[in-house]
């Protein structure tokens, strides 16, 4: 009976978001409360479960996501992203332009959220296509494939970060495994797949936005790359140094402290405020305004992540997670494949990759406690499933269609197929990685 209630609640959640157009945050909250009552949770325990689910999920996550959003906004506003794209375009030239676009999306995609990166890089795609007289889809799809993969697989992006926290996965391992899985997915679904689209011509009618760059000269390529990749450099370097030091030594203690994601992001923001802000002639008040706008951009994402944590907590405290785990184990599917499949189905129903991943977290969480599953790979499996087959209920589908001036058929054959390839190639990479690291 409890399993039927759980699936009825998931269906209700999907209908509220897709058909009823209810705010995703409110839909999660309402369904979680109803689920708790139907599953027999005492009323006096429900407020505690809501507070615990919200607090445990956001407690260690909100600072990292907020600081990551601030860094991404500053990278965009300062012109660093455009500088990286321009240098790579001139370095690779006409013959390898799609590879230049992929690498740009890969680098810029580490600090930038997908929607911000999309709007920011669209002018570059149009400019490159016009300069080289190449089809927009051929030039643009590799870059957007990179952005999508980084958004779905790699912390500090909201969904991947939230999943890593909920699954108690090591962030450094998750990032490294994510990069290993991301590279073949980007290559095959980006430049290689784009070769089949060289004859696809769109009829763009929309005026694309100008690049979001403040007045003044953009930063140099060295500062641009350094600032965009700074969180990775700090955490990676600190982990390497900590591993080489004697256990318990002052240097090992200090570097382990710096390697903590929250501390690394604090250092990153302090440094980037100077390198991309004050050093470029911006007033400190201007940089703070950029940061304030970044927080506004991700406020709803934080609420959605927190409300998804409430649902997971309800499932755990009512015992339905344990029952579900026993039933899922009976399917005789590898846990990573099962997690990908459940998330892919939710993605088809819900549209949003972030919401699909967070919804799946509460369902697949029991798989971690009933089998020897690597938590980092579970994060990636859910992330890969959340990218599966973007279609008409996904805002990114319409962004791509309208900006590139494509028909519905063309959008399915380009964007939707690319997202499907990314998801399946990612899954294959995750399963192979699982065999290697066991």
TrEMBL record:
Is Transmembrane included in the keywords of this UniProt record? Answer: yes
Q: Which domain of life is it from?
A: Bacteria
**What Gene Ontology cellular-component terms does the record carry?**
plasma membrane
Which segments of the protein form a coiled coil according to its record? none
Q: What compartments host this protein? A: Cell membrane
A GO MF annotation of the entry reads: gluconate transmembrane transporter activity
Per UniProt, the keywords (alphabetical) are: Cell membrane, Membrane, Transmembrane, Transmembrane helix, Transport
Q: Which Pfam families does this chain map to?
A: GntP_permease
Transmembrane feature ranges: 26-46, 58-76, 96-129, 136-154, 174-197, 228-251, 257-277, 298-316, 336-365, 377-400, 412-437
* Topology relative to the membrane: Multi-pass membrane protein
Matching entries from NCBIfam families are given as:
gntP (TIGR00791)
Q: Its family?
A: Belongs to the GntP permease family.
The name this protein goes by in its record:
Gnt-I system high-affinity gluconate transporter
Question: What species is this protein from?
Answer: Pedobacter duraquae
């Amino acid at each position: 009976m409890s399993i039927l209630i759980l699936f009825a609640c998931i269906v209700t959640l999907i209908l509220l978001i897709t058909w009823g157009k209810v705010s995703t945050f409110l839909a999660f909250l309402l369904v979680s409360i109803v689920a708790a009552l139907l599953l027999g949770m005492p009323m006096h325990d429900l407020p505690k479960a809501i507070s615990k689910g919200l607090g445990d999920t956001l407690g260690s996550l909100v600072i990292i996501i907020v600081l990551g959003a601030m860094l991404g906004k500053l990278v965009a506003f300062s012109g660093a992203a455009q500088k990286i794209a321009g240098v790579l375009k001139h370095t690779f030239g006409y013959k390898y332009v799609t590879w230049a676009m992929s690498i740009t999306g890969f680098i810029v995609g580490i600090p930038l959220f997908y929607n911000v990166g999309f709007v920011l890089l669209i002018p570059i795609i149009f400019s490159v296509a016009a300069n080289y007289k190449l089809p927009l889809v051929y030039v643009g799809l590799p870059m957007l494939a990179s952005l999508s993969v980084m958004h779905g697989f790699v912390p500090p992006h909201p969904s991947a970060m939230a999943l890593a926290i909920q699954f108690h996965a090591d962030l450094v391992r998750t990032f490294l495994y994510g990069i290993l899985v991301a590279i073949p997915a980007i290559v095959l679904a980006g430049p290689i797949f784009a070769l089949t689209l060289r004859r696809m011509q769109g009829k763009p009618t929309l005026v694309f936005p100008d690049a979001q760059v403040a007045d003044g000269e953009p930063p140099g390529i060295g500062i641009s790359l350094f600032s965009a990749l700074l969180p990775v450099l700090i955490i990676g370097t600190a982990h390497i140094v900590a591993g080489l030091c004697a256990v318990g030594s002052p240097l090992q203690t200090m570097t382990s402290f710096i390697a903590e994601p929250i501390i690394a992001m604090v250092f990153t923001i302090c440094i980037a405020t100077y390198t991309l802000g004050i050093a470029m002639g911006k007033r400190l008040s201007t940089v703070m305004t950029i940061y304030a706008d970044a927080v506004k951009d991700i406020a709803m994402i934080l609420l959605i992540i927190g409300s998804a944590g409430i649902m997971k907590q309800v499932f755990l405290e009512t015992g339905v997670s344990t029952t579900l785990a026993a039933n899922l184990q009976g399917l005789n599917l590898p846990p990573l494949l099962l997690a990908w499949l459940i998330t892919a189905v939710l993605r088809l129903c819900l549209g949003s990759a972030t919401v699909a991943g967070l919804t799946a977290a509460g369902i697949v969480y029991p798989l971690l406690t009933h089998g020897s599953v690597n938590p980092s790979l579970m994060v990636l499996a859910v992330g890969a499933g959340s990218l599966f087959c973007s279609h008409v209920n996904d805002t990114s589908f319409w962004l791509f269609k309208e900006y590139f001036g494509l028909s519905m058929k063309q959008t399915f054959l380009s964007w939707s197929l690319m997202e499907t390839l990314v998801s399946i190639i990612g899954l294959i990479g995750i399963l192979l990685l699982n065999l290697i690291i066991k």
